[in-house]
Design goal:
With 117 residues, the chain is mostly helical. The protein contains four helices and no strands. It has helices at residues 3-26, 32-52, 57-83, 89-115. The longest helix is centred in the middle third of the chain and has 27 residues, at 57-83.
């Protein structure tokens, strides 16, 4: 998968995260968790985008590592939001599938970059 395809996946996930943020605020009147998920969920793509324009291989790995941490945080908040019954099982599984796919892609990219150092 090339970087443009991954970036598009990140953008699509950011859009889904923003829609979840809006849903949680408007329908559930939930503000703290919605802000948390919105920040980390959209940060994945922002950090991936920065990695694509990294100044060095080490900078590339560092930016991807931040994106990887943001995927972990997103997974955490999705579990909290689902466990709090703010979203359905279907919503949860859809978002989890996307973020876990991004996590796998980012992790593989880090491993590949580290191996080529």
């Amino acid at each position: 998968m090339n970087k443009d395809e991954v970036l598009n996946k990140c953008i699509k996930f950011s859009v889904k995260t923003n829609k979840l943020w809006k849903y949680l605020r408007e329908k559930q009147r939930e503000y703290n968790n919605s802000n948390q998920i919105q920040r980390c969920g959209t940060s994945i793509g922002a950090n991936y985008s920065e990695a694509c324009d990294a100044e060095s291989k080490a900078d590339f790995i560092h930016k991807l590592a931040i994106a990887q941490k943001e995927t972990n945080e997103t997974i955490y908040w999705l579990k909290v939001i689902y466990g709090s019954e703010f979203i359905s099982k279907e919503q949860f599984e859809d978002l989890m599938n996307d973020v876990q796919e991004l996590y796998g892609i980012i992790t593989a990219s880090i491993k590949k970059a580290k191996a080529s150092l």
